[in-house]
Amino acid sequence: MDPFKNLPIRYFDHESEVEGVEAALTRLKAEAGREYPLKIGDQTHTNERKLITTNPADPSQVLAVFQKATQEQADQAIQLADRTFDSWKQTPASERAEILVRAAEVLRQRRDEAVATMVLEAGKNWIEADADFAEAVDFLEFYAREALRYAEEQPVTPLEGEEPELFYIPLGVGAVIPPWNFPLAILTGMSSAALVAGNTVVLKPASDTPLTGQLFAEAMAEAGLPTGVLTYLPGSGSEIGDFIVEHPRVRFISFTGSMEVGLGINERAARVAPGQIWIKRVVAEMGGKDAIIVDKDADLDAAAEGIVASAFGFQGQKCSACSRLIVHEQVYDTLLEKVLDRTAAIKVGPPKDRTAFMGPVINQAALDKVRSFVEIGKQEGRLVAGGTRIGDVGYFFEPTIFADVGPDSRLGQEEIFGPMLAVMKAANFDEALEIANNTIYGLTGSVYSRNESNLDKARDVFHVGNLYFNRKCTGALVGVHPFGGFNMSGTDSKAGGRDYLGLFLQAKSISRKV
Ligand code: NAP
Ligand code: MG
Protein backbone atom coordinates (compact mmCIF):
# COMPACT_ATOMS: atom_id res chain seq x y z
CA MET A 1 0.00 0.00 0.00
CA ASP A 2 1.19 3.57 -0.64
CA PRO A 3 1.99 5.66 2.41
CA PHE A 4 -1.09 7.11 4.13
CA LYS A 5 -2.25 10.55 2.99
CA ASN A 6 -5.15 12.64 4.31
CA LEU A 7 -8.09 13.07 1.94
CA PRO A 8 -8.40 16.81 1.18
CA ILE A 9 -11.57 18.50 2.47
CA ARG A 10 -13.80 20.22 -0.08
CA TYR A 11 -14.73 23.86 0.42
CA PHE A 12 -17.44 23.89 -2.27
CA ASP A 13 -15.96 26.69 -4.30
CA HIS A 14 -16.53 24.72 -7.52
CA GLU A 15 -20.00 24.61 -8.99
CA SER A 16 -19.70 20.89 -9.75
CA GLU A 17 -19.12 20.09 -6.04
CA VAL A 18 -22.15 22.16 -5.12
CA GLU A 19 -24.37 20.45 -7.70
CA GLY A 20 -23.40 17.01 -6.41
CA VAL A 21 -24.54 17.75 -2.86
CA GLU A 22 -27.66 19.62 -4.04
CA ALA A 23 -28.66 16.56 -6.05
CA ALA A 24 -27.98 14.28 -3.07
CA LEU A 25 -30.11 16.48 -0.81
CA THR A 26 -32.96 16.25 -3.31
CA ARG A 27 -32.65 12.47 -3.52
CA LEU A 28 -32.60 12.13 0.28
CA LYS A 29 -35.73 14.23 0.58
CA ALA A 30 -37.46 12.06 -2.00
CA GLU A 31 -36.52 8.95 0.00
CA ALA A 32 -37.36 10.46 3.40
CA GLY A 33 -39.15 8.14 5.78
CA ARG A 34 -37.60 4.98 4.34
CA GLU A 35 -37.59 2.12 6.84
CA TYR A 36 -34.51 0.00 7.53
CA PRO A 37 -35.01 -3.48 8.99
CA LEU A 38 -32.61 -4.74 11.64
CA LYS A 39 -30.15 -7.28 10.23
CA ILE A 40 -28.55 -9.86 12.50
CA GLY A 41 -26.62 -12.32 10.40
CA ASP A 42 -28.94 -13.55 7.64
CA GLN A 43 -32.08 -12.67 9.59
CA THR A 44 -33.97 -9.42 9.18
CA HIS A 45 -36.25 -8.13 11.91
CA THR A 46 -39.00 -5.56 11.96
CA ASN A 47 -39.79 -4.43 15.48
CA GLU A 48 -42.84 -2.82 16.90
CA ARG A 49 -40.76 -0.10 18.49
CA LYS A 50 -39.03 2.22 16.03
CA LEU A 51 -36.15 4.60 16.23
CA ILE A 52 -37.12 7.61 14.15
CA THR A 53 -34.41 9.96 12.95
CA THR A 54 -35.35 13.54 12.12
CA ASN A 55 -33.81 16.77 10.88
CA PRO A 56 -32.80 19.07 13.78
CA ALA A 57 -33.38 22.08 11.50
CA ASP A 58 -36.99 20.94 11.11
CA PRO A 59 -37.83 18.12 13.53
CA SER A 60 -41.16 17.41 11.82
CA GLN A 61 -39.13 16.08 8.88
CA VAL A 62 -38.63 12.33 9.34
CA LEU A 63 -35.47 11.20 7.54
CA ALA A 64 -35.59 7.47 8.19
CA VAL A 65 -37.08 4.82 10.45
CA PHE A 66 -34.95 2.19 12.18
CA GLN A 67 -35.89 -0.68 14.48
CA LYS A 68 -35.21 -0.20 18.18
CA ALA A 69 -33.18 -3.28 19.04
CA THR A 70 -34.31 -5.24 22.10
CA GLN A 71 -32.08 -6.89 24.69
CA GLU A 72 -32.88 -10.24 23.15
CA GLN A 73 -31.67 -9.02 19.76
CA ALA A 74 -28.56 -7.51 21.34
CA ASP A 75 -27.91 -10.94 22.86
CA GLN A 76 -28.34 -12.61 19.44
CA ALA A 77 -25.91 -10.14 17.88
CA ILE A 78 -23.30 -10.78 20.59
CA GLN A 79 -23.65 -14.55 20.28
CA LEU A 80 -23.30 -14.30 16.52
CA ALA A 81 -20.19 -12.14 16.92
CA ASP A 82 -18.82 -14.71 19.35
CA ARG A 83 -19.26 -17.53 16.82
CA THR A 84 -17.92 -15.51 13.89
CA PHE A 85 -14.81 -14.55 15.84
CA ASP A 86 -13.40 -18.07 15.33
CA SER A 87 -13.07 -17.57 11.57
CA TRP A 88 -12.47 -13.81 11.45
CA LYS A 89 -9.50 -14.01 13.79
CA GLN A 90 -7.90 -16.52 11.35
CA THR A 91 -8.32 -14.23 8.36
CA PRO A 92 -4.91 -12.79 7.44
CA ALA A 93 -4.39 -9.14 8.39
CA SER A 94 -3.75 -8.30 4.74
CA GLU A 95 -7.24 -9.51 3.80
CA ARG A 96 -8.85 -7.58 6.61
CA ALA A 97 -6.92 -4.47 5.60
CA GLU A 98 -8.06 -4.88 1.98
CA ILE A 99 -11.68 -4.82 3.12
CA LEU A 100 -11.12 -1.44 4.83
CA VAL A 101 -9.47 -0.04 1.73
CA ARG A 102 -12.37 -1.24 -0.41
CA ALA A 103 -14.88 0.23 2.05
CA ALA A 104 -13.06 3.58 1.79
CA GLU A 105 -13.50 3.36 -1.98
CA VAL A 106 -17.22 2.56 -1.61
CA LEU A 107 -17.60 5.60 0.63
CA ARG A 108 -15.69 7.86 -1.78
CA GLN A 109 -18.28 6.91 -4.42
CA ARG A 110 -21.02 8.01 -2.02
CA ARG A 111 -19.37 11.20 -0.78
CA ASP A 112 -22.12 13.64 -1.77
CA GLU A 113 -24.76 11.40 -0.27
CA ALA A 114 -22.78 11.14 2.97
CA VAL A 115 -22.38 14.91 3.16
CA ALA A 116 -26.07 15.48 2.47
CA THR A 117 -27.01 12.89 5.10
CA MET A 118 -24.96 14.64 7.79
CA VAL A 119 -26.30 18.05 6.72
CA LEU A 120 -29.85 16.79 7.24
CA GLU A 121 -29.42 14.40 10.16
CA ALA A 122 -26.74 16.09 12.28
CA GLY A 123 -27.20 19.73 11.24
CA LYS A 124 -23.61 20.09 10.00
CA ASN A 125 -22.74 22.75 7.48
CA TRP A 126 -21.42 21.42 4.18
CA ILE A 127 -17.74 21.92 4.92
CA GLU A 128 -18.02 20.38 8.40
CA ALA A 129 -19.91 17.44 6.89
CA ASP A 130 -17.26 16.98 4.22
CA ALA A 131 -14.53 17.13 6.88
CA ASP A 132 -16.37 14.43 8.84
CA PHE A 133 -16.57 12.32 5.68
CA ALA A 134 -12.86 12.82 4.87
CA GLU A 135 -11.93 11.81 8.40
CA ALA A 136 -13.94 8.59 8.08
CA VAL A 137 -12.11 7.67 4.87
CA ASP A 138 -8.81 8.61 6.51
CA PHE A 139 -9.49 6.27 9.42
CA LEU A 140 -10.17 3.36 7.06
CA GLU A 141 -7.01 3.99 5.05
CA PHE A 142 -4.88 4.66 8.13
CA TYR A 143 -5.98 1.63 10.17
CA ALA A 144 -5.66 -0.64 7.13
CA ARG A 145 -1.97 0.27 7.00
CA GLU A 146 -1.63 0.02 10.76
CA ALA A 147 -2.99 -3.53 10.68
CA LEU A 148 -0.18 -4.51 8.32
CA ARG A 149 2.38 -2.87 10.59
CA TYR A 150 1.07 -4.65 13.68
CA ALA A 151 1.12 -7.96 11.76
CA GLU A 152 4.84 -7.63 11.02
CA GLU A 153 7.45 -9.52 13.00
CA GLN A 154 7.82 -7.70 16.32
CA PRO A 155 11.23 -6.98 17.83
CA VAL A 156 12.35 -9.04 20.85
CA THR A 157 15.73 -9.28 22.54
CA PRO A 158 17.77 -12.27 21.31
CA LEU A 159 18.72 -14.97 23.80
CA GLU A 160 21.29 -17.65 23.19
CA GLY A 161 19.78 -21.12 23.07
CA GLU A 162 16.24 -19.87 22.40
CA GLU A 163 14.20 -18.51 19.51
CA PRO A 164 11.85 -15.92 21.02
CA GLU A 165 9.08 -14.20 19.05
CA LEU A 166 6.08 -12.00 19.73
CA PHE A 167 2.95 -11.37 17.74
CA TYR A 168 -0.42 -9.74 18.26
CA ILE A 169 -3.79 -11.47 18.35
CA PRO A 170 -7.28 -9.94 18.59
CA LEU A 171 -9.34 -9.82 21.79
CA GLY A 172 -12.79 -11.11 20.85
CA VAL A 173 -16.22 -9.51 20.67
CA GLY A 174 -16.22 -5.73 20.99
CA ALA A 175 -19.09 -3.40 21.80
CA VAL A 176 -18.58 -0.15 19.89
CA ILE A 177 -20.62 2.81 21.15
CA PRO A 178 -20.01 6.10 19.34
CA PRO A 179 -21.56 9.59 19.77
CA TRP A 180 -23.70 11.52 17.26
CA ASN A 181 -21.42 14.53 16.81
CA PHE A 182 -19.02 12.93 14.30
CA PRO A 183 -21.64 10.48 13.11
CA LEU A 184 -19.54 9.06 10.29
CA ALA A 185 -15.91 9.72 11.29
CA ILE A 186 -15.87 8.55 14.90
CA LEU A 187 -18.22 5.62 14.27
CA THR A 188 -16.09 4.48 11.33
CA GLY A 189 -12.79 4.95 13.15
CA MET A 190 -13.83 3.11 16.31
CA SER A 191 -15.44 0.22 14.42
CA SER A 192 -12.88 -0.25 11.67
CA ALA A 193 -9.92 -0.27 14.06
CA ALA A 194 -11.51 -3.02 16.15
CA LEU A 195 -12.45 -5.02 13.04
CA VAL A 196 -9.17 -4.77 11.16
CA ALA A 197 -7.38 -5.99 14.28
CA GLY A 198 -9.42 -9.21 13.96
CA ASN A 199 -12.20 -8.63 16.47
CA THR A 200 -15.91 -8.95 15.76
CA VAL A 201 -18.13 -6.00 16.56
CA VAL A 202 -21.60 -5.11 17.73
CA LEU A 203 -21.99 -1.45 16.80
CA LYS A 204 -24.67 0.55 18.57
CA PRO A 205 -24.86 3.96 16.88
CA ALA A 206 -26.05 7.09 18.69
CA SER A 207 -29.82 7.42 18.49
CA ASP A 208 -29.69 10.86 16.87
CA THR A 209 -27.73 9.73 13.80
CA PRO A 210 -28.45 6.12 12.75
CA LEU A 211 -28.87 7.03 9.07
CA THR A 212 -25.31 8.33 8.78
CA GLY A 213 -23.94 5.22 10.49
CA GLN A 214 -25.90 3.03 8.10
CA LEU A 215 -23.56 4.25 5.33
CA PHE A 216 -20.60 2.68 7.12
CA ALA A 217 -22.42 -0.61 7.68
CA GLU A 218 -23.37 -0.76 3.99
CA ALA A 219 -19.86 0.15 2.84
CA MET A 220 -18.31 -2.64 4.92
CA ALA A 221 -20.80 -5.20 3.61
CA GLU A 222 -20.20 -4.10 0.03
CA ALA A 223 -16.46 -4.28 0.61
CA GLY A 224 -16.81 -7.98 1.44
CA LEU A 225 -16.90 -8.10 5.23
CA PRO A 226 -18.30 -11.56 6.05
CA THR A 227 -21.80 -11.68 7.54
CA GLY A 228 -21.90 -11.56 11.33
CA VAL A 229 -18.46 -9.97 11.79
CA LEU A 230 -20.20 -6.62 12.23
CA THR A 231 -23.77 -6.16 13.43
CA TYR A 232 -25.22 -2.68 13.07
CA LEU A 233 -27.62 -2.44 16.00
CA PRO A 234 -29.54 0.83 16.36
CA GLY A 235 -31.26 1.10 19.71
CA SER A 236 -31.53 3.19 22.81
CA GLY A 237 -28.40 3.47 24.92
CA SER A 238 -30.38 3.55 28.11
CA GLU A 239 -32.38 0.43 27.16
CA ILE A 240 -29.75 -1.90 25.71
CA GLY A 241 -26.48 -0.15 26.61
CA ASP A 242 -26.10 -1.66 30.08
CA PHE A 243 -27.06 -5.09 28.80
CA ILE A 244 -24.38 -5.03 26.09
CA VAL A 245 -21.71 -3.68 28.43
CA GLU A 246 -22.46 -6.30 31.08
CA HIS A 247 -22.70 -9.26 28.68
CA PRO A 248 -20.20 -11.99 29.70
CA ARG A 249 -19.14 -12.68 26.08
CA VAL A 250 -18.20 -9.05 25.41
CA ARG A 251 -14.41 -8.78 25.68
CA PHE A 252 -13.97 -5.02 25.26
CA ILE A 253 -15.98 -1.82 25.03
CA SER A 254 -14.95 1.06 22.84
CA PHE A 255 -16.92 4.14 23.84
CA THR A 256 -16.89 7.79 22.84
CA GLY A 257 -19.39 10.17 24.40
CA SER A 258 -20.16 12.02 27.60
CA MET A 259 -18.24 11.62 30.84
CA GLU A 260 -21.39 10.60 32.68
CA VAL A 261 -22.13 7.66 30.38
CA GLY A 262 -18.43 6.75 30.01
CA LEU A 263 -17.90 6.50 33.76
CA GLY A 264 -21.02 4.35 34.11
CA ILE A 265 -19.73 1.98 31.43
CA ASN A 266 -16.32 1.79 33.06
CA GLU A 267 -17.91 0.85 36.36
CA ARG A 268 -20.28 -1.76 34.96
CA ALA A 269 -17.58 -3.28 32.78
CA ALA A 270 -15.45 -3.85 35.86
CA ARG A 271 -18.02 -6.19 37.40
CA VAL A 272 -17.51 -9.84 36.47
CA ALA A 273 -20.69 -11.47 35.14
CA PRO A 274 -21.38 -15.18 35.78
CA GLY A 275 -19.51 -17.21 33.17
CA GLN A 276 -17.14 -14.37 32.28
CA ILE A 277 -13.46 -15.38 32.02
CA TRP A 278 -11.64 -12.08 31.38
CA ILE A 279 -11.22 -8.54 32.58
CA LYS A 280 -13.04 -6.36 30.05
CA ARG A 281 -10.98 -3.71 28.43
CA VAL A 282 -12.58 -0.26 28.27
CA VAL A 283 -11.52 2.44 25.88
CA ALA A 284 -13.51 5.55 26.82
CA GLU A 285 -13.08 8.94 25.19
CA MET A 286 -15.21 11.54 26.93
CA GLY A 287 -15.92 15.24 27.29
CA GLY A 288 -13.93 18.44 27.35
CA LYS A 289 -13.88 22.00 28.61
CA ASP A 290 -11.27 23.19 26.19
CA ALA A 291 -9.48 26.51 26.50
CA ILE A 292 -7.69 28.91 24.21
CA ILE A 293 -5.14 31.20 25.87
CA VAL A 294 -4.31 34.55 24.27
CA ASP A 295 -1.02 36.09 25.37
CA LYS A 296 -0.38 39.85 25.40
CA ASP A 297 1.84 39.81 22.30
CA ALA A 298 -0.34 37.47 20.20
CA ASP A 299 -1.58 38.17 16.69
CA LEU A 300 -5.06 39.19 17.84
CA ASP A 301 -6.76 38.94 14.45
CA ALA A 302 -5.50 35.42 13.93
CA ALA A 303 -6.54 34.58 17.49
CA ALA A 304 -10.05 35.98 17.02
CA GLU A 305 -10.48 33.97 13.84
CA GLY A 306 -9.32 30.74 15.50
CA ILE A 307 -11.45 31.35 18.58
CA VAL A 308 -14.67 31.90 16.65
CA ALA A 309 -14.04 28.85 14.45
CA SER A 310 -13.26 26.69 17.51
CA ALA A 311 -16.14 27.95 19.65
CA PHE A 312 -18.96 28.07 17.10
CA GLY A 313 -18.00 25.59 14.36
CA PHE A 314 -20.75 22.93 14.32
CA GLN A 315 -22.52 24.99 16.99
CA GLY A 316 -19.82 24.24 19.56
CA GLN A 317 -20.79 20.56 19.54
CA LYS A 318 -17.30 19.14 19.34
CA CYS A 319 -15.43 17.56 22.20
CA SER A 320 -12.53 19.75 21.03
CA ALA A 321 -14.60 22.97 20.90
CA CYS A 322 -13.24 26.06 22.62
CA SER A 323 -15.61 26.79 25.50
CA ARG A 324 -13.20 28.87 27.59
CA LEU A 325 -11.23 31.84 26.34
CA ILE A 326 -8.49 32.99 28.72
CA VAL A 327 -7.00 36.36 27.84
CA HIS A 328 -4.08 38.37 29.18
CA GLU A 329 -5.54 41.47 30.80
CA GLN A 330 -3.47 43.83 28.62
CA VAL A 331 -5.26 42.69 25.45
CA TYR A 332 -8.56 41.57 26.97
CA ASP A 333 -10.78 44.41 25.73
CA THR A 334 -9.22 44.61 22.27
CA LEU A 335 -9.43 40.87 21.69
CA LEU A 336 -12.99 40.65 22.98
CA GLU A 337 -14.01 43.41 20.53
CA LYS A 338 -12.51 41.43 17.64
CA VAL A 339 -14.20 38.21 18.73
CA LEU A 340 -17.54 40.01 19.04
CA ASP A 341 -17.19 41.53 15.55
CA ARG A 342 -16.58 38.14 14.00
CA THR A 343 -19.36 36.53 16.01
CA ALA A 344 -21.83 39.19 14.88
CA ALA A 345 -21.06 38.24 11.27
CA ILE A 346 -21.95 34.56 11.73
CA LYS A 347 -24.89 33.40 9.67
CA VAL A 348 -27.15 30.90 11.45
CA GLY A 349 -29.65 28.94 9.38
CA PRO A 350 -30.70 25.56 8.01
CA PRO A 351 -27.51 23.85 6.86
CA LYS A 352 -29.06 22.74 3.59
CA ASP A 353 -28.35 26.36 2.65
CA ARG A 354 -24.59 26.15 2.21
CA THR A 355 -23.96 29.79 3.13
CA ALA A 356 -25.05 29.17 6.75
CA PHE A 357 -22.01 28.80 9.00
CA MET A 358 -24.02 27.60 12.02
CA GLY A 359 -26.99 25.24 11.99
CA PRO A 360 -29.21 23.90 14.76
CA VAL A 361 -28.07 22.06 17.89
CA ILE A 362 -28.82 18.35 17.77
CA ASN A 363 -32.08 18.00 19.72
CA GLN A 364 -34.51 19.47 22.22
CA ALA A 365 -32.45 18.36 25.21
CA ALA A 366 -29.38 20.13 23.81
CA LEU A 367 -31.42 23.29 23.24
CA ASP A 368 -32.79 23.12 26.79
CA LYS A 369 -29.30 22.68 28.20
CA VAL A 370 -27.95 25.70 26.34
CA ARG A 371 -30.90 27.81 27.49
CA SER A 372 -30.44 26.77 31.10
CA PHE A 373 -26.79 27.77 30.92
CA VAL A 374 -27.77 31.21 29.66
CA GLU A 375 -29.65 31.69 32.92
CA ILE A 376 -26.67 30.40 34.90
CA GLY A 377 -24.34 32.61 32.86
CA LYS A 378 -26.35 35.71 33.67
CA GLN A 379 -25.59 35.08 37.35
CA GLU A 380 -21.93 34.34 36.72
CA GLY A 381 -20.81 36.74 34.00
CA ARG A 382 -21.75 39.49 31.54
CA LEU A 383 -23.74 38.48 28.46
CA VAL A 384 -22.04 40.22 25.52
CA ALA A 385 -23.42 38.26 22.55
CA GLY A 386 -26.40 36.03 21.77
CA GLY A 387 -28.35 34.29 24.50
CA THR A 388 -31.55 33.65 22.56
CA ARG A 389 -33.16 30.91 20.54
CA ILE A 390 -33.70 31.75 16.87
CA GLY A 391 -37.20 31.13 15.49
CA ASP A 392 -39.44 28.36 16.76
CA VAL A 393 -38.84 25.68 14.14
CA GLY A 394 -35.64 23.74 14.62
CA TYR A 395 -33.14 23.92 17.44
CA PHE A 396 -31.37 27.13 16.43
CA PHE A 397 -29.53 29.18 19.00
CA GLU A 398 -27.45 32.33 18.70
CA PRO A 399 -23.69 32.15 19.17
CA THR A 400 -23.42 33.22 22.78
CA ILE A 401 -20.58 34.82 24.72
CA PHE A 402 -20.27 35.61 28.40
CA ALA A 403 -17.40 37.90 29.45
CA ASP A 404 -15.81 38.30 32.90
CA VAL A 405 -16.56 34.72 33.91
CA GLY A 406 -14.83 33.33 37.00
CA PRO A 407 -12.70 30.21 36.47
CA ASP A 408 -14.52 28.26 39.20
CA SER A 409 -18.03 29.11 38.01
CA ARG A 410 -20.28 26.47 36.47
CA LEU A 411 -19.85 28.17 33.09
CA GLY A 412 -16.12 27.83 33.55
CA GLN A 413 -16.25 24.18 34.61
CA GLU A 414 -19.11 22.23 33.03
CA GLU A 415 -19.29 20.93 29.48
CA ILE A 416 -22.28 22.61 27.81
CA PHE A 417 -21.77 21.24 24.29
CA GLY A 418 -23.41 24.13 22.48
CA PRO A 419 -22.58 27.53 20.99
CA MET A 420 -21.45 29.14 24.22
CA LEU A 421 -18.13 30.71 25.11
CA ALA A 422 -16.97 31.85 28.57
CA VAL A 423 -14.30 34.58 28.55
CA MET A 424 -11.92 34.96 31.47
CA LYS A 425 -9.23 37.49 32.32
CA ALA A 426 -5.74 36.49 33.49
CA ALA A 427 -3.24 38.84 35.14
CA ASN A 428 -0.30 37.15 33.41
CA PHE A 429 0.65 34.10 31.35
CA ASP A 430 1.29 31.84 34.35
CA GLU A 431 -2.13 32.60 35.73
CA ALA A 432 -3.64 31.89 32.30
CA LEU A 433 -2.08 28.42 32.35
CA GLU A 434 -3.32 27.81 35.87
CA ILE A 435 -6.87 28.71 34.85
CA ALA A 436 -6.58 26.53 31.75
CA ASN A 437 -5.57 23.50 33.83
CA ASN A 438 -8.22 24.14 36.46
CA THR A 439 -10.88 21.65 35.26
CA ILE A 440 -11.46 17.92 35.55
CA TYR A 441 -10.93 17.56 31.80
CA GLY A 442 -7.86 17.72 29.58
CA LEU A 443 -8.75 17.23 25.93
CA THR A 444 -7.63 20.06 23.63
CA GLY A 445 -6.12 23.48 24.16
CA SER A 446 -4.53 26.23 22.19
CA VAL A 447 -2.15 29.11 22.89
CA TYR A 448 -1.76 32.23 20.78
CA SER A 449 1.56 33.86 21.60
CA ARG A 450 4.74 35.15 19.95
CA ASN A 451 6.76 34.62 23.12
CA GLU A 452 8.91 31.50 22.66
CA SER A 453 9.52 30.95 26.37
CA ASN A 454 5.80 31.14 27.09
CA LEU A 455 5.10 28.60 24.35
CA ASP A 456 7.78 26.35 25.86
CA LYS A 457 6.16 26.69 29.25
CA ALA A 458 2.75 25.80 27.81
CA ARG A 459 4.32 22.80 26.08
CA ASP A 460 5.37 21.52 29.51
CA VAL A 461 2.47 22.40 31.77
CA PHE A 462 -0.73 22.82 29.69
CA HIS A 463 -2.17 19.39 30.56
CA VAL A 464 -4.21 18.36 27.52
CA GLY A 465 -3.97 15.48 25.10
CA ASN A 466 -4.01 17.75 22.03
CA LEU A 467 -2.24 21.09 22.32
CA TYR A 468 -2.02 23.61 19.49
CA PHE A 469 0.01 26.80 19.08
CA ASN A 470 -1.21 29.79 17.09
CA ARG A 471 -4.09 27.87 15.52
CA LYS A 472 -7.60 26.74 16.40
CA CYS A 473 -8.12 23.87 18.85
CA THR A 474 -10.51 21.89 16.62
CA GLY A 475 -9.93 19.98 13.39
CA ALA A 476 -7.50 17.19 14.35
CA LEU A 477 -6.37 15.22 11.30
CA VAL A 478 -5.90 11.45 11.24
CA GLY A 479 -2.22 10.57 11.45
CA VAL A 480 -1.18 14.20 11.93
CA HIS A 481 -2.80 14.90 15.30
CA PRO A 482 -3.50 11.58 17.07
CA PHE A 483 -6.50 12.38 19.23
CA GLY A 484 -7.43 11.71 22.86
CA GLY A 485 -7.55 13.47 26.19
CA PHE A 486 -6.25 13.34 29.76
CA ASN A 487 -8.06 13.12 33.10
CA MET A 488 -11.86 12.98 32.76
CA SER A 489 -11.56 13.47 29.01
CA GLY A 490 -10.84 9.76 28.82
CA THR A 491 -8.30 7.03 28.36
CA ASP A 492 -6.16 9.01 25.90
CA SER A 493 -6.53 6.37 23.21
CA LYS A 494 -5.05 8.62 20.52
CA ALA A 495 -7.39 7.75 17.69
CA GLY A 496 -5.66 8.11 14.34
CA GLY A 497 -2.28 7.40 15.90
CA ARG A 498 0.16 4.51 15.99
CA ASP A 499 -0.86 3.32 19.46
CA TYR A 500 -4.56 2.99 18.69
CA LEU A 501 -4.74 -0.48 17.11
CA GLY A 502 -2.83 -1.93 20.04
CA LEU A 503 -5.86 -1.21 22.23
CA PHE A 504 -7.78 -3.91 20.35
CA LEU A 505 -5.01 -6.51 20.40
CA GLN A 506 -3.11 -8.63 22.90
CA ALA A 507 0.46 -9.81 22.54
CA LYS A 508 1.51 -13.46 22.55
CA SER A 509 5.12 -14.27 23.37
CA ILE A 510 6.54 -17.64 22.31
CA SER A 511 10.02 -18.99 22.78
CA ARG A 512 11.49 -22.26 21.58
CA LYS A 513 14.61 -23.90 22.99
CA VAL A 514 17.14 -24.71 20.27
P1 NAP B 1 -23.64 10.26 25.17
O1 NAP B 1 -24.96 10.78 25.51
O2 NAP B 1 -22.73 9.85 26.28
O3 NAP B 1 -23.88 9.04 24.18
C1 NAP B 1 -22.81 8.35 23.57
C2 NAP B 1 -23.26 6.96 23.19
O4 NAP B 1 -23.51 6.21 24.38
C3 NAP B 1 -24.55 6.93 22.39
O5 NAP B 1 -24.46 5.92 21.41
C4 NAP B 1 -25.57 6.58 23.45
O6 NAP B 1 -26.74 5.98 22.92
C5 NAP B 1 -24.79 5.61 24.28
N1 NAP B 1 -25.33 5.36 25.63
C6 NAP B 1 -26.15 6.13 26.37
N2 NAP B 1 -26.38 5.55 27.56
C7 NAP B 1 -25.70 4.39 27.58
C8 NAP B 1 -25.54 3.35 28.53
N3 NAP B 1 -26.13 3.38 29.72
N4 NAP B 1 -24.77 2.30 28.21
C9 NAP B 1 -24.14 2.24 27.02
N5 NAP B 1 -24.26 3.19 26.07
C10 NAP B 1 -25.02 4.26 26.35
O7 NAP B 1 -22.82 11.32 24.31
P2 NAP B 1 -23.31 12.11 23.02
O8 NAP B 1 -24.33 13.11 23.42
O9 NAP B 1 -23.68 11.15 21.95
O10 NAP B 1 -21.99 12.83 22.56
C11 NAP B 1 -21.53 14.04 23.11
C12 NAP B 1 -20.43 13.78 24.11
O11 NAP B 1 -19.38 13.05 23.49
C13 NAP B 1 -19.77 15.05 24.63
O12 NAP B 1 -19.55 14.90 26.01
C14 NAP B 1 -18.44 15.09 23.88
O13 NAP B 1 -17.42 15.81 24.53
C15 NAP B 1 -18.11 13.64 23.77
N6 NAP B 1 -17.19 13.36 22.69
C16 NAP B 1 -15.90 13.03 23.00
C17 NAP B 1 -14.98 12.79 22.01
C18 NAP B 1 -13.56 12.43 22.32
O14 NAP B 1 -12.84 11.99 21.44
N7 NAP B 1 -13.12 12.61 23.55
C19 NAP B 1 -15.38 12.90 20.66
C20 NAP B 1 -16.71 13.23 20.38
C21 NAP B 1 -17.61 13.46 21.40
P3 NAP B 1 -28.08 6.86 22.71
O15 NAP B 1 -27.76 7.85 21.66
O16 NAP B 1 -29.08 5.84 22.29
O17 NAP B 1 -28.40 7.49 24.02
MG1 MG C 1 -31.98 13.64 14.39
Q: What's the Cα radius of gyration?
A: 23 Å
Overall domain count? 2
Round the mean pLDDT to the nearest integer and report it: 98
Q: Please, what is the CATH homologous superfamily of the largest domain? A: Aldehyde Dehydrogenase, Chain A, domain 1
* End-to-end separation: 36 Å
Helix content: 25-40%
* Low-confidence spans: none
The order of strands across the largest sheet is: 14-17-18-13-12-19-20
User: Approximately how much beta-strand content do the residues carry?
Assistant: 15-25%
CATH hierarchy: architecture of the largest domain: 3-Layer(aba) Sandwich
Notable traits:
514 residues, alpha/beta, Aldehyde Dehydrogenase, Chain A, domain 1, Aldehyde Dehydrogenase, Chain A, domain 2, 2 domains, 7-stranded mixed β-sheet, 5-stranded parallel β-sheet, 21 strands, 39% helix, binds NADP nicotinamide-adenine-dinucleotide phosphate, binds magnesium ion
Write a structural description.
This protein has 514 residues and is an alpha/beta fold. It has two domains: 20-286 and 492-512, Aldehyde Dehydrogenase, Chain A, domain 1; 290-477, Aldehyde Dehydrogenase, Chain A, domain 2, CATH 3.40.309.10. The chain contains 15 helices and 21 strands. The protein has helices spanning 15-31, 71-88, 93-109, 111-121, 126-151, 185-196, 210-222, 237-246, 259-270, 300-312, 332-344, 364-380, 410-413, 429-437, 452-461; strands at 34-36, 38-40, 43-45, 50-55, 58-67, 162-170, 173-177, 200-203, 230-232, 250-256, 281-285, 290-294, 322-328, 382-385, 389-390, 396-397, 400-403, 420-426, 444-448, 466-469, 505-513. The chain has a seven-stranded mixed β-sheet with strand order 14-17-18-13-12-19-20, sandwiched between helices. It has a five-stranded parallel β-sheet with strand order 9-8-7-10-11, with helices on both faces. The chain has a three-stranded mixed β-sheet with strand order 1-5-4. Strand 17, helix 13 (410-413) and strand 18 (420-426) form a beta-alpha-beta unit. Helix 1 crosses helix 4 (111-121), helix 2 crosses helix 8 and helix 3 packs antiparallel against helix 5. The longest helix has 26 residues, at 126-151. The mean pLDDT is 98. The protein binds NADP nicotinamide-adenine-dinucleotide phosphate (NAP) and magnesium ion. NADP nicotinamide-adenine-dinucleotide phosphate (NAP) is lined by residues 177-182, 186, 204, 206-207, 236-238, 241-242, 245, 256-258, 261, 264-265, 285-288, 319, 415, 417, 443, 485, 489-490.
